[in-house]
Amino acid sequence: MATNQYAVKILFLLLLPFLLTGCKSSKKTQEQPLTQEISTKEQPLESIEDSSFELEYENIYQKAVEIEKNYETLKPRAEKFVDSYFPKTQIQKHKLMTVALIAGGSNYLLSNMSNAKFYGTKAYEYKEDKSIAFPVEWESIRWRQGRDTNILKKLIYMKDFLRSCSNAGFDAFCKANEAFFGKGQVLDAMHEYQNAMQWGLEKESLRQECYLRLAACFYKAGRKEECEKLFLELLIIEPNPNLTIGDQETREYLNELKEKYSL
Amino acid sequence: MEIANVWLQSGLPALIRGVKLVPKQHPRFKNLAYYEEGKQGRAFHLVQPSNKREWILKKFTSEMQPERSYVVSVRSLVPKSICFQAASKRIVLTPEDIKPGEGIYSSGELSKWLDGTILMPKMPGTSWQNVSKEIRSGALDLSMSKRVSFARSLAEAVVEMEQEGCAHRDLSHESVLLDLQENIVYLIDWDSLFHGTLYYFKNTPAGSQGYMPQWLGDQNKWDSRKSWNRKGDRFALAILISEFLLMNQESPSFYDGAMYSQEMFGNTQHPFFLKVSESLGRISESLHDLFRQTWNSTSYDDCPDPLKWKEALEEIKVEESASEQGKAILEFDEGEEIASSESSSSSSKAYWLLLLLALVPLAIWFLNQPENQRFFSTSSANSQKNEPVRKNSEPLQVIKNEPVPVVKNTEPPQVLQPDNTKTELVPVTQVNSPGTPSPIVMPQKYLIKVMYVDTDLKMKIDGQEILLNKNNTAEVQIKPGIYGMEMTFSKVILERETVKKGSSVTSEAQITFDKNENIIIQINRSEGTWQQTNTP
Hints:
- The structure holds two protein chains of two kinds.
- By secondary structure, chain A is mainly α.
- Helices cover about 70% and strands about 0% of the residues of chain A.
- Among the domains of chain A are: about 50-135, Serine Threonine Protein Phosphatase 5, Tetratricopeptide repeat (Alpha Horseshoe); about 170-260, Tetratricopeptide repeat domain (Serine Threonine Protein Phosphatase 5, Tetratricopeptide repeat, Alpha Horseshoe), CATH 1.25.40.10.
- Chain B has 14 helices and 27 strands.
- In chain B, the strands form seven sheets. In chain B, strands 1, 2, 3, 4, 5, 6, 7 and 8 form an eight-stranded antiparallel β-sheet that branches.
- In chain B, helix 6 (about 145-165) runs antiparallel to helix 10 (about 305-315), helix 7 crosses helix 9 and helix 8 (about 270-285) packs antiparallel against helix 9.
């Protein structure tokens, strides 16, 4: 038996080089892919950098859709991303602003308030107009689906905190008041209240007024969906807002929403 | 902030050449208008909300903006077939093309921003850049018959352009769109066009990397003058045809999707070139020869005639080709409608003028007939002295005391409530000069909208209280003229961020009811005044 096994092994060793040569030569007859050699050669450095930027951004963004679950792992990644990249285009600036918000939000959920404030403030610095915009997946009505009230509250408070990291929206808020109350110019007021929200308002009471007044403006402008989303955020922060603004129609609509979303 | 973003965030459409358009939101980023960055500027995606039709608005960067006359001429110089529609249907906008209106976004900034931009309907299909990305990723398997059809369609387009004496000059994976249903290509990005009647301008692009022949220069400097000729598409045509036919999952990618790098061009021994030639040779010997000829060229004149490419591609027999050969069916295109609006409006004016000239003598003859005169005697007398506006210095008289010959309905004009259930009476007044016949003024419906965001507003017209809707509007039926109106509302005290409700104030001023049926009242609650603006 043992001698037979030896014979088989020796035979196999002798045949191995022939087998390998055979495989190689058969490969030659197959159709060669057009550019096997070149495909990895001349990739410009910039596009490699850009692709890693895009890839990491996508990863962070996807995880941030469920930030309440992923904030611990998101925190270092988002911070590293913000600290590593310098944006070149408007889209990249927008992306870095988004990741800075994610970093700020993750820190907020970890109760690391100084870091949360740092990245929240940084988010306002990226875009030329110093504005922020939250990911669409962070809309209150989307968050409301499949999440319990406590988590929803936590997330809305996180957003509200990020809006408080800058006060550049204060002037816009005052202008909006003048347009809304002073002149009844709802569209101008809506634009300025939106600016105020995007540029940040430090004072909590003003932010709450801003939520309510912007919701009223959205309603008057026929943008009911946006009115509802924003009003829901307000109701979570302040369950009993003073609904004595706007005309009768607006007040009735806001009261309807209040009943609909009473938590 | 970028004007397009402000426009998007307003939530309102802009009225451009009679079409309501809104910027499309970036698919991922809220409040950011969706655009694609190109060499010459940005292509913003717009939507026509009424029918969801998509449009492209091309905004040049200041450095790359060609002269207006050049941009305007492009439309008339390209051939007329389907693949040139992005050029033949485009319109160069001026500030006058944007019109204000109720529920419409308009601003001086937007008008200024739109000046010199190009509006065009979005072409069907996907850029070759995106299609090739899908092929590389394995998500799309493009059949050989489709590949040949696209190559043939592109060759035909270049043949047509050369016949018209023009060249696109920037054919690349970005400027060629593939309609995968119809198997035809559409060409976009027409602002490098060569034509004998156009002047060369120095900021014109030489082409795109991965599609420019070696004789145009190198990375350090491309000489755009060298591609400024009628044959300027021949090299890129060969490159694109080879890409269409051979792109696969193993293909290399340069400059975000091109199959060749600029460094390869001109190197006749480059291994990749040899492989491509060999692969084309397996499809057709003619293709192999034409590609080699292009690769070995040192000028556009040496490159093969696009007609030869077309013939070589037509010779290729692919099994499914007959059924897949695309016949594009064009639907009604509003781009055409908009573009021709100026000429149509002038022709419609001429039509109405002719109609008027024909109808006036007819009407005179008709009125002069004795049997007709008795029907029209009262109204014709009155119609000569139609004075709808009263003078406030003269004493007021209530119309109900006077005979009104034409109006059959003797009920006083009504104030219409929104639900049409409650009504309120408004006395209609007018002033008549002594001794003149009473002019007939018919009551009209007006919608009064008060810009006021509170619930304590009260309104009186000529002392008659008008009930307001929940949204501070009122519909009234009243004779045109000037009336006294009293508004009672609460003042506000604005001190930076604080808003305090002040005392109630009554302010009286005049309101004019004329041809405009929508009356807008602007209240200044800080000053306790109001005024009629009639614009939102």
